[in-house]
Amino acid sequence: MRLLPPRVLLLTGPVALAFFSGGYDDRPRLVALAAAAVALAALAVLTPSTRALPLLPSGWGPRTALGGLIGLAAWVALSHRWSPVKDAAADDAERVTLYATALVCAALAWRERAAARWVELAGAAGAFAAIGYGLLGRLLPGVVREHASVSAGGRLEQPLTYWNAEGALAAVGFVLCARITGDRSRPVAVRALAAAAAVPLAAGTYLSFSRGALVALAAGVVVLLVLAPTWTQLRAIAICAEAGAGGTLAAVVFPGVRELSGSLGHRELEGAIALAGLLLMMGGAAALLAWAASAEAAGRTRMGRLPLPGWAPYAATAIVVALVAVPVAVARSSDGPSPSFGATSARLTSASSNRYDYWKVAARAFEHHPVRGLGSGGFRTAWLRERPIGERVRDAHSLELETLAELGLVGALLLACLAGGIGWCARIVQREDPALAAGAAAALVVFGVHSAVDWDWEMPAVTLPVLALAGMLVAQSAHHE
């Protein structure tokens, strides 16, 4: 019980940040950093430490992950000395320090398995709260009033204020809900609630009209099924996907809900009908899960492991890589028009994007400054010098490429240590305690795929929940390494 306050702070803080532009701006980010520092101090004082269970997790994986992110925070702060944009470098230093503090906190907070089980639930609930609020602004526009920016073009962007980040958070939440729904060790009521919550999260993913979020969602579902290869998990994914598709359809058929068009009265009518359809699908998902759980308990349905071949993990890896690489390769080799603007399904049929121009500039910046990079925040100056189009851009829209451009090989190596260490910890927990690892690892894949093509790293409300899952894996791996 003595660790309850800092644990609650770690789990609820990212949800609160979602309602302050995702924590992107200075003030909420600084408040979050102060709160993380308080949580770290409390955990350091209150967490018991023994020779068998030291304060911080030991072992190659945990030390590499924690050292990688702490080192990255230090390198970002040091790059302020040569960065051409001092304010941006200072913002980045605050952000990565927040992330490093949060990861250390998570490694301290989730050492007990019973407590670690709450991280998955909190991540799903937080995504549901943020995405649900955004949807309510469309379903009940006369009750929940939201600001709609011109740049969004009607795409779901609130409360994070960036539609692609909204889609990424919804995709992470959907994968976590699918995992909870398929986890027989949890109460049936919890599984039913997760199945219901997956419906608005699926709708939120689609209404963001983020192609990257949809690709990341597909990658996460594939990984989830490979890590939890049971008939129960397959049924859970099917229930969440089918009900989610029905709920999405109930929303997208109405222009007032899909793209915020029409008068307020017209939008209220369409929103009420769509809300009824969404609630119907949520209730149906919960009822179907309850029926499936009853059939499982009575032995009236298939149980046990799926008959997947031994090469299934390698196939899943290939599928995840292909989901990212193939659209990039196809679009890079084509001269097709730019995707349609705004909340239209026509966007989802095009792979064209200005991102390829961003990435080229980032690659050239790395070629010119391979060791230490331009300095954190420096990509925007390279873009202004070399941009082939008139668009104003601050980020390379790829965590890896932006790290190479701004922080050079040193920063890329530290980022690789973070990712590799977390991956190693996930592998250990998956081997020893697969029920605990599957959902967290699949959610991390969603974030990894999406952050490779967007700037999620600069949106704390998206990154912090994922770091909580990563920290849980780091903490739990220490029991088995």
Automatic annotation (TrEMBL):
Q: Specify the O-antigen ligase-related domain's residue ranges.
A: 197-415
Q: What is its main location?
A: membrane
UniProt entry keywords in alphabetical sequence: Ligase, Membrane, Transmembrane, Transmembrane helix
Is Chloroplast there in the keyword field?
no
Q: Subcellular location, in the record's words?
A: Membrane
Q: Name one GO molecular function term.
A: ligase activity
Q: Which InterPro entries match?
A: O-antigen_ligase-rel_domated, WaaL-like
User: Any stretches that span the bilayer, and where are they?
Assistant: 33-53, 65-83, 118-140, 160-181, 188-207, 213-231, 236-257, 269-291, 311-331, 407-426, 435-453
Membrane topology category: Multi-pass membrane protein
**UniProt cross-references to Pfam families, sorted A to Z:** Wzy_C
What is the recorded name of this protein?
O-antigen ligase family protein
Q: Which organism is it from?
A: Paraconexibacter antarcticus
